[in-house]
Structure formats: structure tokens, C-alpha cells
Amino acid sequence: MLRDALLWASTNPTLAQKLPRYRFVQKATKRFMPGEDRQDALNECATLGARGISSTITLLGENLTSLDEADAVVAHYLDSLRAIEEQGLRTVISIKPTQLGLDFGVDEATRRLAQLCAATPTTVWIDMEGSAYVDQTLDIFRTVKRERSNVGLCIQAYLRRTAADLESLLPLDPDIRIVKGAYNEPESIAFPDKRDVDRSFVALAESLLRARRDGGRGTAVLATHDPRMISETNRLANELGVDREAYEFSMLFGIQRNEQDRLARAGYRMRVLVSYGSAWFPWYMRRLAERPANLWFVAKQMIG
Ligand SMILES: Cc1cc2nc3c(=O)[nH]c(=O)nc-3n(C[C@H](O)[C@H](O)[C@H](O)COP(=O)(O)OP(=O)(O)OC[C@H]3O[C@@H](n4cnc5c(N)ncnc54)[C@H](O)[C@@H]3O)c2cc1C
Fold first, then answer.
1. What residues flank ligand 1, with Cβ below 6 Å?
2. Domain 34-279 CATH assignment equals 3.40.50.2000
3. Domain residue limits, the chain
4. pTM, full prediction
5. Mean pLDDT across the chain, nearest whole number?
6. Which of the following is catalytic: 38, 112, 177, 271?
């Protein structure tokens, strides 16, 4: 119930406007976000790099009200790509399709994504948003992938459709990031039971690792903090004889830091996603919903 309430809060515009004004809320976000500015995120990426961990940055913000805003997002990321290169960071970018104008049409978002891919040799990642956007997001990915190899896609294990979606994508040799899924979806389309979501995650990881064993070139990114998902992936990779270079673990900034270091030190590819920007409220509520125990952390900020 608490998870549902937090996910509801994540979509409430009044709360999104009012709560971030409180200092205790701002303070509490520090755990998950080094700061609102891009350079705050890039400084953290440099620190991660020194720990042998590569990084992804993402500008927070969801549904836009005009295409001018989508152009501003593209301009922002083009600057980010230049800053990443100048600062010699092992950092890539990840973007929500709605930030590229998806609500104004698939072509709008596709064109902007292609522009970003053309500006860098590194992989540009597409986040997966709520289920209403999945078909369009797959279309965008397929179209850009035909022209550019440096585009990667996030898929969500909680959706019943995802196994079939992945099957249809495999011939493209895709770079795929598997996540469990962060939105509130109905049982008709998403597994309500966590055990089924976990089973789906492992099955998707296995499909990607098998594709790699069979000569595919796509990288599998396992974006999870769940130790069982991590050990299952390593077990499968061993069993299939797939090299560690073929896959990568990814976590969110501020979550399971010790595990991030442990994996990096053990020689696994490890990447951390660092978010920044002023529109952090919906994203922050989704992080609390993933682990309502984090509310204790917020409560401590209120008292202390
Ligand atoms: C790199 C990255 C990119 C992502 N991109 C997307 C995306 O594009 N679309 C999308 O829908 N979702 C995305 N997510 C979020 C994802 O869907 C999950 O909601 C999130 O990762 C939590 O699931 P989990 O796999 O860690 O497992 P869970 O079963 O939720 O958690 C396993 C364990 O991890 C720890 N943990 C998990 N979350 C937290 C937290 N917030 N705070 C503290 N501890 C925690 C806890 O110990 C928990 O027991 C992304 C996640 C990552 C790491």
C-alpha cells in the first residue's frame, strides 16, 4: 500500500510543485543525487571513475509541454557530451523518450535521438517509461538502430510482454539494459508477484547471454541492486561460457555502494547511473517506492 501511495505521489503535479520547496526534502534527496547541476553529476562520475566504475548521467524531467523544451533537452545533452569528452570521463547518457518529444509524435523523438547518436561514438541509452510508451519506444529504437549502432534500450522485466519484445529485438544485435520496472502497472500487463518479476529478469538475462554466446555483439546491462539477480547472472554466464566483458552491472548512485565497489574490484564491469536536474520529485518518489524503508532516511532528515 505504501508503495502504491508513493507511486501515486510520483504522478501528482501539486506535490511535485510544493514538496521540493522544503529544505528537509531537498536534504533527503542528497542520498540519491549529488546535486541539481550537470557538473555536480560529472564530478561524481570522476570520483566513480577513480573507483574503477564507469557511469551514466541522466537529466531528470518527464513529459514536456512543447517541442521547444525537447530542443532544449537535446542542446543540453549535446553540451553534456562535449563536457564528458573534455573531462575525459567514462560516462554515457541515458534519456527518457518523452524528454525528446515523444508526446508530440514518434518521429519527433526519433529525429532528436538520432541527432544525439550522431554526435558521439559512445552509446546513447533510451530509458523505458510507463507501459503506454513501450510500443512507440521500441519503434524509435528500431528506427535509430538501422542507421546507428550506438543506441541502447532499457526493457522492463515486470511487463508480461517483454520476453516477446526481446525475442523480436535480438536479430538487431542490441545493447539492452534489463530493469525490473519502476512504474505502477496493472496486473493485466505486469506481474504482480515479485517472484515472477525476478524469474522474468533472469530469463531475459539468459536470452541476452545466450545471444552473446551464439555470436551476437550486443552488451547485456543488468541494472539491479538485487544480489540474487547478480549472482544468477554470473552463474548463467559461467554456465554458458560467456566472458565478463560481454555484460555489465549497473546501479543507481547512492544505492548499494559497497556492492558496487565489490563488483568492480572483483573484475566485473560496473556502471553507476547519476541523476541530476531540478525536476527530481517524481523520480525521487519512485526511488522511495522501491524501498519504503528509505522513508526512515527522509524522517531522520526532518528531525536532524
Ligand atoms: C541503472 C538503472 C537504470 C534504470 N532505468 C530504468 C528505466 O529506464 N525504466 C524503469 O522503469 N526503471 C528503471 N530503473 C529502476 C528499476 O526498474 C527498479 O525500479 C530499481 O532498480 C529497483 O529494482 P532492483 O532490481 O534493484 O530490485 P528490488 O527487488 O527492487 O531491490 C532489491 C534490493 O536492492 C536494494 N534496493 C533497491 N532499490 C533501492 C532503493 N531505492 N534504495 C535502497 N535500496 C534499494 C534493496 O536492498 C532491495 O532489497 C533503473 C535502475 C537502474 C539501476
1. 127-128, 154, 156, 179-183, 223-226, 250-252, 255, 273, 287, 290-291, 294
2. no
3. 34-279
4. 0.90
5. 91
6. 177
